[in-house]
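Q: What would this chain look like folded?
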Amino acid sequence: MEFSLALGLILFLVLILASGFWIGFSLLAVGLVTMLFVSPRPVGDSMVLTIWGSTSSWTLTALPLFLWMGEILFRTRLSENMFAGLAPWFNRLPGRLLHVNVLGSAIFAAVSGSSAATCSTIGKISLPELERRGYPERMAIGSLAGAATLGLLIPPSIIMIVYGVAADVSIARLFVAGALPGAMLAVMFMGYIACWALLNPDKIPPADKGVSFFSKVYASRKLIPIVLLILTVLGSIYTGIATATEAAAIGVLGSLALAFSERSLNRQIFVEGLAAAARLYCMIGLILAGAAFLTLAMGFVGLPRHLAEYIGSLQLSPFSLVIALTLFFLVLGCFLDGISMVVLTISVLLPTVQAAGLDLIWFGVFIVLVVEVAQITPPVGLNLFVLQGLTKRDIGYIAGTVIPMFVLMMGAIVILYLFPQIALWLPSHM
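A: My prediction, written as structure tokens:
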């Protein structure tokens, strides 16, 4: 009976989501129907208490602050400065300016926390410039699509904050845990670009005229403030000087100062950035509230317990469990965005993950990495849609360009499992 009810509710949820209804309201609707069927408790009281408890966490205040920080910098000349500052350093490296996609995305990821924002911002600058210089379109699009996913892994990551709140794990430790895997993935992307360029030398434009070392340093001077901002935000967390929320406040103040120093901060930019961050946070907050209420309802149905018991009965090894969860999230990523995937599943999966002996910090990095892969898988790969808007290319063509990056990211998941200290070494020294 309980299984049939749970299956019916899942199908009901899929039907509502497929209709195009807002995700947050869809979750609330299914939770409401569930509570009316299975719980003798007053539904209104339960809903109010659950929603308030899930959205009033002090830890969660870091989320709108980091969102605002990213929106402020998105409206400055940061992306133009990055391309101009980074391009001279890669002139002699195999693949040349294609590497700017990767390193530029990594730098912007460290201030935006968003994959879509990274893809859009870097793409607006790099794709036209790479096309003008004669770089192959497939490599330009593919390298950007893969590298932009670093916005989810390199701290401060929005989705890590969501996971930390849902799993009751230290957000500061999650941020630190994501640094080395993010750097590893960036190096893997750059390594692939270099190997491809060496195998296809005729497809890479000739190097620009030689530039002296001092000219390179001078061209990169405008990157110094943003690098200092990143180091200040992450350094304050790593050293224990500030919590994630306090570091986010420092980041907002620093981004405002940076925008002001570049003379790109005015009343309109300030209001637009604040409004954009508020809209995005309201969307995320609604999803979190709906997921919390649905989780409560599913607890009454017994779905988390039954699922945990079922997976436990399979007696899967930790490796088999990781494979199963990877496939599960990849399928889920075909229909949902990353934040929805996390808030919908974490509370259900945590008992099983803990029973398997997996570290919750490591599991958070693993989840984010899998969600990164989902960002470039059709039909709901958000980065694919962003690139489609930038390039006006067919979604199938864009999906084809990211296949090598997809393979590399799956390889990164395997490496992370075989060598968990890549994610756990830095948090262990906090």
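Residues 118 and 423 are 23 Å apart (CA to CA).
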